[in-house]
TetR family transcriptional regulator
Amino acid sequence: MGIVAEDDALMQGDSRLGGSVRPGGRTARTRAAVFDAAIAELGEKGFAGTNLEKIAGRAGVALSTLYRRWGNLTGLLQDLVDELTLDLSPPDTGSLDGDLAALGRLILQLHRHPVHRPWMDAVTAAAVHDPAARAVLSRTIMARIQRAAGVVEAAAARGEIPVDTDAADVIRMLAAPFYYRMYVSGEPLTDDLPERVAGAVAAAVRAGTLRRTTP
Amino acid sequence: MGIVAEDDALMQGDSRLGGSVRPGGRTARTRAAVFDAAIAELGEKGFAGTNLEKIAGRAGVALSTLYRRWGNLTGLLQDLVDELTLDLSPPDTGSLDGDLAALGRLILQLHRHPVHRPWMDAVTAAAVHDPAARAVLSRTIMARIQRAAGVVEAAAARGEIPVDTDAADVIRMLAAPFYYRMYVSGEPLTDDLPERVAGAVAAAVRAGTLRRTTP
């Protein structure tokens, strides 16, 4: 969560990374083939059952190329998910409620995305016990929290909420109910969830909670 | 989360299920041995690497006894976690803020509990891809949500919050940031988290958000 997409780019439901691969160029084609193979491997075997060798074989690319470019599996997976979300820029609807709801809709879209979802499932399951998967997931989520926090800082700059609101904590409160349903309670993510959660979190912030604590 | 413990019972850090096993009686001893073996197996091998046969062998109990009493691994794990939390009753501090903070402290205790935490980790990791583990986790979490929701209904009955507040959704908003840190962002669960999250959620509810929607 935390990064906003053009609906078109995210929702086109294309297993070839939603058109993010630049057409033409051998490097770009190799990259696309490796990412496709990695996604297929992850989907079939999960994080623990996949390695660079299997991905290279499936992609028809030399293993040495993968080692040179990514170093290891976690490097490749990090690059894959960065590419998926790199072009996404934060919302700017003019209100905290609107921006938080837009971020919530993005989480919903990532949850339904044909590439992001299997990536997220595999890395989340593995992260419980595997430090390398944990590092990939934490790094990705922390970067998204920091990026999305801009909408809270903008609301503070507009005078909408207290200036010492803890922007990162607001984003965590917003994102958490989505992931709680996905991975803990196992309940469906309904279409009304972004507005509902955004409304609750914005009300909490306007009431003066979630301030920065002095370290 | 969602069920409140006597600190003593939860915090005694005893791998034999915190003293919940009734002393004396062959049945009780068998049960304790099987639960201890199940926890050790789960901790070492995870959900996918464990089965009733291995647990029976480790416990020194006939496999037929395990089949007769629990049917399968998920039945045994469900019984195990129910026993861990069965004696816990909801908080009653007299205010929604206080009750939600008490529930938050319970989640923190379960997170640090020597038996509950490995159980939760194993089942959460497995639930991403395994429908049987998903069923155990969902059933457990939904039962806790329903039970904890009583503190929200009590606050509504006291006139503290709107009568049509969605009690289950309030509990989800409270619990989610804990599990988000555990399994998604990988950030530590700090001691100030229960008060902080409870304060935010209670403020959101007092502001009139998280109402029941007409079906």
Notes: The interface with chain A takes residues 46, 121-122, 124-129, 134, 137-138, 141-142, 145, 169, 172-173, 175-177, 179-181, 183-187, 192, 196-197, 199-201, 203-210, 213 of chain B (CB under 8 Å). Chain B has a mean pLDDT of 86. DSSP finds eleven helices and no strands in chain B. Residues 26-45 of chain B form the longest helix (20 residues).
